[in-house]
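New here. Your pick:
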Amino acid sequence: MKLKEIYLDQQEHIEKTLNSLKKDFITIRSGAVAASILDNIKVDYYGTLTSLNQVATVIVSDATTINISPWEKNILKYIERAILEANIGVNPNNNGESIQLYFPPMTSEQRTENAKQAKVMGDKSKISIRNIRKDANDKIKKLEKTKEITEDESKKAHNEVQKITDTAVSDIEVLVKTKESELLKI
């Protein structure tokens, strides 16, 4: 039946949105530094934008230091440039062999700012969820207009789409609250 396909399509898009939000949250620094803060950094590797972890070994030395050892020394300057452009809050230290990133301990202002950033990411995800709902509702209206479903079936379908949307928004709120508490915990 067409309606089941609409619900499945909506669920699939919602899952992608939630996974994207989780990936975005990984890039926000909480207490100790994590290598995942570099996940979105792409390096110009022989004309191709390549993930940093595919051209170098990334090691977290301690709670505030990341060491990046490229597999080819000639790409050090490209890695350095990519880190600077990514604006992750530290300047790379290039010693000719590797790059060290020294992250200062986080202040309460930084933690609060990162919590706000997580909330903004959550709000953007909610907007995506509402757009997914709109697409599903438009498909249902089209089915009703072409007389493939009755008016009652249409109303039930709109209610089901809203239930799926409400669940997704609630999931996002839980993810944001969890991330905020993680960020604000010292």
